[in-house]
Amino acid sequence: xxxxxxxxxxxxxxxxxxxALLLGLLLGAFWPQAAPYLEFIGDLFVRAIRMLxxxxxxxxxxxxxxxxxxxxxxxxxxxxxxxxxxxxxAIAVSVGMAVASLLRPGLGAPLGSAAPHPVGxxxxxxxxxxxxVPVNIFEALAKGDMLAIIFVAILLGVGTLVAGEAGRPFxxxxxxxxxxxxxxxxxxxxxxxxxxxxxxxxxxxxxGMAVFVNVGxxxxxxxxxxxxxxxLVHSLLLRFVAWVPLPAFFRGIVDALAVAxxxxxxxxxxxxxxxxxxxxxxLGRPIYSTxxxxxxxxxxxxxxxxxxxxxxxxxxxxxxxxxxxxxxxxLLTGSLAAFGTxxxxxxxxxxxxxxxxxxxxxxxxxxxxxxxxxxxxxLLDMTRTVPSASANLTVATIVARWEGELDDDVFxxxxxx
Length: 417
What we know:
The protein is mainly alpha-helical and about 425 residues long. It has one domain: Sodium:dicarboxylate symporter (Proton glutamate symport protein, Orthogonal Bundle), CATH 1.10.3860. The protein has helices spanning about 1-10, 15-30, 40-70, 70-105, 125-130, 135-145, 145-160, 170-190, 190-215, 215-240, 245-250, 255-265, 265-280, 285-300, 300-315, 325-340, 350-355, 365-375, 375-400, 410. α4 packs parallel to α15 and α4 (about 70-105) packs antiparallel against α19 (about 375-400). The two termini are about 20 Å apart.
């Protein structure tokens, strides 16, 4: 038994994760009756990761700010981060619209056979803006309100920094807590192969093959849009803005991408993304501890691509020929909606009303589209979470390069631990 365990741990984690993903696909496809017996393993894995999200966001952002030393760097890093995420989000919406225009997956979609699913009123920009400042810090922590937690963490870090000598003991406590949390993430990460295996097997057994039968063109469009966003947009940014080798980057982030795919949640991917950013990409803690939590809330390339794609899918299914102004409105409102989407599974579906209402689609028609897609959305959501995770780590890498916080020796290492 001891020899088997040693052999298991000598295999690189990313190889174990990919092997588990493949086995999960095979089990779900060929022996779906066995998948429900493994469901508790996937649920435990997701709960363990989600347990870490709130403390990691609160502590690591505050610790990252205190380690910057100069308060002026905060604004520079934050401004560059938001600009990059806004840029990749807008490109992602355009990619989704382009793929939808090319494949036209909505033509002939049988919306009439779908059960309407009311989506409710989307939050207004005012509500999103005001909600950043929590009335009760502990309530925001309990609810996992990511933007509010980020706001509190920034205040905590800035307050510690400007307190000077009096803030040094607290800054040391934050750094120590960050180190402990990242060690805990490492422990949880060793369970990733088993969690991914159970999650993928259940997803495929539940409705995986139905996706390709019932909404095959939409599934193909999501896959193509995700691939374009990662392999073209992110790769060009990494190669010509961050000046890093692409094979090393994608080899280094494969663990995070596998968790993103299996959990379909940007926030659940955050602890893993922070670990690979430090250990595989060589990003400095001040960078990844501020950029990645912010990206988990606003870096939604997959959501943005899907919103642009699904908006045109809806117009095609409803027989509406979009005008040039409609394309612009979808691009604008889709980008804004993606920024405000919660980092949880299927959240982008319920932001669709905000986009379609801008081009004159009634809520009743939007409910039909959501009712048609929702039964098959799990695998689509898993697919589009991957470019969101890739975007987060891409932006963090670029900002680290600009700030001189990227260790090229670590980045180019084999990452076989």
